[in-house]
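Tutorial handout. Part one gives the primary structure; part two gives the three-dimensional structure as tokens.
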Amino acid sequence: MPDSAPTALQNWAGNIRFSPSRFEAPATLDEARAVVAAAPRLRVLGSGHSFNTIAASDATMVSLAGIEPEVNINALTGTVRASGWITYAALSAAVHRAGFALHNMASLPHISIAGSIATGTHGSGNGNGNLATAVAAIEFIGPDGELRTVARGDEDFPGSVVHLGALGVVHAVTLDLLPGFEMRQYVYDGLAFDQAVVHFDELTSAAYSTSLFTAWGAEPQFQYWVKQRTADQTHPFPKANWYGAPLADGPRHPVPGVDPTACTEQQGQTGPWHERLPHFKPEFTPSSGDELQSEFLIDRADAPAALEAMAGLGDKLGSVVQICELRTMKGDDLWLSPAFGRDTVGLHFTWVSDFAAVEPVMSAIEGALEPFSPRPHWGKLFSIPIDDVRSRYPRMGDFEKLRERVDPEGKFTNDFSAAVTGGTAR
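Part two.
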């Protein structure tokens, strides 16, 4: 492979810029293993859809995107083994063609599998775990360049799935599959704040996947998205309204006033799961990246009280929030998953791209949510002290021991992961 000179990189939003000493783009798995073995320190560049320094490094940066991706479906075991750098859009299309489905998808299908799993990224639905819960096995390139597989049932498995990039370079994952299914999506306008608070559980349990969107402000209202499996729909027509919120008379974008062309089909049009579970179509770039994002995850039982706590910040939020989305997920046993040990609701904030204006409002939200022990999304902006974040993960100490055993020299550590795991950044 040719020698790689230092290069300047940035994330998708452009708010994080860094200059690794080397940038490597191997064309084969063997080349990738050689890069990993030779590098004193190394981080992996995925789809870049993070908003903090979780991926940033001044050492060697490697992208596996130049390696021909693999998707191998095993109908007998109901699993798919796929290259870690493939996007959910590409994977879901292949899975659908074979007659299967993934249990869930995030709002954007453009993101990579490995990066999404490593950070505990999620879709929605009271009965659906986050994306990492579909992992049956995960395959790493270790610090010596050797391949290592951790499978469900192995002692290290619960600590290895959501790993923040600190356990190695993921080159493949095996995911559980479901039989393929079709869905219909409906949107309702103008759900009053008090109705959303009082009926939160009923709203989020009404379909396979639901979302509540609000731009906050002095008198917040919600846009309510309902994604139903057709097999679960007990009558051919949707409800005319939900607690006073009428069925939308046309397609909607989550952000008020934005053209909905990039959004997945609504108004009850039947379609396959992978064209309804995400909010956005893969052939569109949903925005130019002119935004910042934060997300705070709390116990689902605390959602009504948390909404009431944030209502007092409505005016402040309205000045810097493009949109706020509420999504739910089932609790899990993955050590660093933000849904570890509790059924969870995520309060996601898409901000304007002015960090100076966003920072004090973000801090105010963190203060309002403090009684509910919020866990920030690992790949998004937050200012909660890292020791407080660490304390909210009961198995953090076990993860630290696992990292020390798997990567004793800290090859895969950067400043972010070192802070999270209590180490010293080099």
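Part three, for discussion. The radius of gyration is 21 Å. The CA atoms of residues 160 and 167 lie 7 Å apart.
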